[in-house]
Amino acid sequence: MRKKTSGRPLFTTRFLTQAALIAALYAALTIWLAPISFDVHQVRVAEALTILPAFTPAAIPGLFLGCVLANTVSFLGLPDLIFGSLATLVSAFLTHAIANAGFWGDSMGFGGGSSAAPDLSGAGVGPSGAAGGSSRPTSMTGLRERLFAKPALRVALLPLPPVLINMAVIGLLLSLFYAMPFGAAAVSVLIGQSVSCYGLGLPLYMLLLAPARRKVFSL
Predict the structure, then answer these.
(1) Between residues 8 and 126, which one has the greater pLDDT?
(2) How far apart are the first and last CA of the chain?
(3) DSSP assignment, residue 8?
(4) Element (H or E) spanning 5, and its range?
(5) Is 76 exposed, middle or buried (0-12, 13-18, 19+ CB in 10 A)?
(6) Are 124 and 150 contacting, i.e. CB atoms less than 8 angstroms apart?
(7) If you average pLDDT over residues 118-143, what whole number do you get?
(8) Sign of torsion, CA 174 180 186 192?
(9) CB 3.0-4.6 Å disulfide test: which of 12, 91, 142, 175 passes with 185?
(10) Which residues contact 133 (CB under 8 A, 6 or more apart)?
């Protein structure tokens, strides 16, 4: 039986297909570019795909599965397979939450029929990510409004979870494996992730904003 959210099926054929394609693309890119996808000085090009949860929740399991498959060839072994993949899962969830303002308690919109990606024009976009800017009366409302009232700022925050979380998790794994200072390993991962997630991920986001392309992600 398929799970439903707000009366709509979540695990539809389209959802599963999107997740599978994203997983395959992430794994293929990482393994194909293995010389620069692992080690201390790494730029995992596939991390550009971590922007996709802003468009579809199917990217959350897709990125996680893709990372699991890719990390089977990691020289860090089981720790990277487990903790590196979990870092990708948490990052994907947070990116999707930021796109929907769900991190602050609003609806995540799982299974919705339209793209969750914030509109850079700002027309009709409020703190909750919906037209009219309605929000729930919580103690976090003021902070949410300051952060998300400007769509461009929300877009700038989208790649941040995979950058910071991988900096901490992969930086720790590398520091333990190489017996090197955590700070040095973390900075190296931070630079590589910034190149992938901001240098490649944000241009991908802008490319996918076109209405004709956004329809690809409708569930």
Answers:
(1) 8
(2) 18
(3) E
(4) strand 4-5
(5) middle
(6) no
(7) 47
(8) negative
(9) 175
(10) 125, 126, 127, 149
Distance CA 91, CA 99 (A): 12
Rounded distance between C-alpha atoms, residue 177 and residue 198, angstroms: 27
57, two tokens? 């929740």
11-42, pLDDT tens digit by residue?
Answer: 789 999 999 999 999 999 999 999 999 988 99
- Look-up of token digits 């487990």: 82
CA distance 112 to 165: 27
Residue 81's closest CA among 36, 27, 121?
27
> Identity (one letter) of the amino acid at 180?
M
Q: Is the pLDDT of residue 154 over 60?
A: yes
What is the domain partition of the chain in residue ranges? 13-110+143-211
Strand partners, 8: 5
Q: Count of residues for the chain?
A: 219
